[in-house]
Structure formats: C-alpha cells, structure tokens
Amino acid sequence: xxxxxxxxxxxxxxxxxxxxxxxxxxxxxxxxxxxxxxxxxxxxxxxxxxxxxxxxxxxxxxxxxxxxxxxxxxxxxxxxxxxxxxxxxxxxxxxx
Length: 96
Hints:
It comes from Zestosphaera tikiterensis. The protein is mainly β.
C-alpha cells in the first residue's frame, strides 16, 4: 500500500462514493420529491393519453410522452403513490 491512501483494505472502499452516477445513487434510497430528475421508461398510457412510467413502485404520469419511450423527467407534484412530471429530455424509443 502506498502512504497516500487513507484506507488499509482496498476491498472495503465505498465504490459508490467514486461513481460518476451521483443522481442514481441519490434517488436510490429515498422518497421521490418535487424537483427530482429521473430517467424512466413509459410502460403504458392512461385514459387521457398521458404516458405512465414507474419508479420505486410509484406511478409517474408524464404528459406528451409516447409508449415505449425513455425520458428524463422533472417531478412537479407528488401525491402518495402517484407523481406528476414533465419531460426534460427524450432519450429515444426502446424497441424489443
């Protein structure tokens, strides 16, 4: 081991601390809040033509989203197990 490292066992290092994917780590263990940005896939459509995706078993309703599309959304309102969001970026349609 070098003298510049503050840890003795490299297998005990918190790898998530060095991750470039901070937003994923940030949303993993906490509740959804207004202002959060998420990447979700639109799995179904509701009766009003809005896209519906899921994040941590919560339904996220996204207006102007297309079925099968992957989108980055901004949470606007959270109501129990339901959240309303708006599209920030369209990441493409997932094909099977």
